[in-house]
Design a protein that fits this description.
The complex is a heterodimer of chains A (about 120) and B (about 110).
Chain A lengths: L2 E5 L3 E2 L5 E8 L9 E7 L6 E7 L4 E3 L7 E6 L4 E6 L8 E8 L8 E2 L3 E5 L2
Parallel strand pairs in A: 2-11
Antiparallel strand pairs in A: 1-3, 3-8, 4-5, 4-9, 5-6, 7-8, 9-10, 9-11
Chain B lengths: L3 E4 L2 E4 L5 E7 L7 E6 L6 E5 L3 E2 L7 E6 L2 E6 L9 E6 L11 E5 L1
The chains are: A mainly beta (about 120), B mainly beta (about 110).
């Protein structure tokens, strides 16, 4: 059974760095072709893809946010991390991690999401 | 980036109805389209991938069609648990982009 779960702070101040952890089970990020993405969804809006990390360590980021994002992984602990710098109130959203099966572009399993509010 | 446009933004229907939601891509994406269902407070759930393939666990009353730039999600015999927001997502090229959503509510 595949599961993913996000964890991290619910509240961050403007200009701070957000760090979120995605802990997953039921698959391995060392499996050829496996990938994990981060997405976010502001209240009442559509999901927005932020970036992904691949089984081989390759990383890809949203063009508009790439200067603020860093995604890393700890394969032995089945964890993927998201760092987002210089947080702003417009970054208030529910942040999700999701699995991309090998060779596909769709997200077949999602975490429950973590609501992050940016406010002083 | 590929732009995805869904219509209608919202639709009202009754249990037992058939509902059609459309999604248009700003360029040809072949059959590289997924549909998701999202219940408030929950994560999106994959319903359809590759435009017409039913995801594991998705009920057979959901069906998808289309290729190129125009796609359709049909929900037959609406059930109470189907009232939710539906999103399309192109899976053809990075960045993978979503439509703005269609809210399906009870008439």
């Amino acid at each position: 059974q595949v599961t993913l779960k996000e964890s991290g702070p619910a509240l961050v101040k403007p200009t701070q760095t957000l760090t979120l952890t995605c802990t997953f089970s039921g698959f391995s990020l060392s499996t050829f072709g496996m990938r994990v993405s981060w997405l976010r969804q502001p209240p009442g809006k559509a999901p927005e893809w932020l970036g992904r990390i691949d089984w081989d360590g390759d990383r890809f980021y949203s063009t508009s946010l790439k200067t603020r994002l860093f995604i890393s992984k700890d394969t032995s602990k089945n964890q993927v991390f998201l760092k987002m710098t210089n947080m702003d109130p417009v970054d208030t959203a529910t942040y999700f991690c999701a699995r991309l099966p090998p060779g596909t572009g769709y997200f077949d399993h999602w975490g429950q999401g973590a609501l992050v509010t940016v406010s002083s | 980036d590929i732009q995805m446009t869904q219509s209608p933004p919202s639709v009202s229907a009754s249990v037992g109805d058939r509902v059609t939601i459309t999604c248009r891509a700003s360029q040809d994406i072949n059959s590289q389209l997924a549909w998701y269902q999202q219940i408030p407070g929950k994560a999106p759930k994959l319903l359809i991938y590759a435009a017409s393939s039913l995801a594991s666990g998705a009920p057979s009353r959901f069906s998808g069609s289309g290729s190129g730039t125009d796609f359709t999600l049909i929900i037959s015999n609406l059930q109470p648990e189907d009232f939710a927001t539906y999103y399309c997502q192109q899976t053809d090229s990075f960045p993978f982009t979503f439509g703005q959503g269609t809210n399906l509510d009870i008439k």
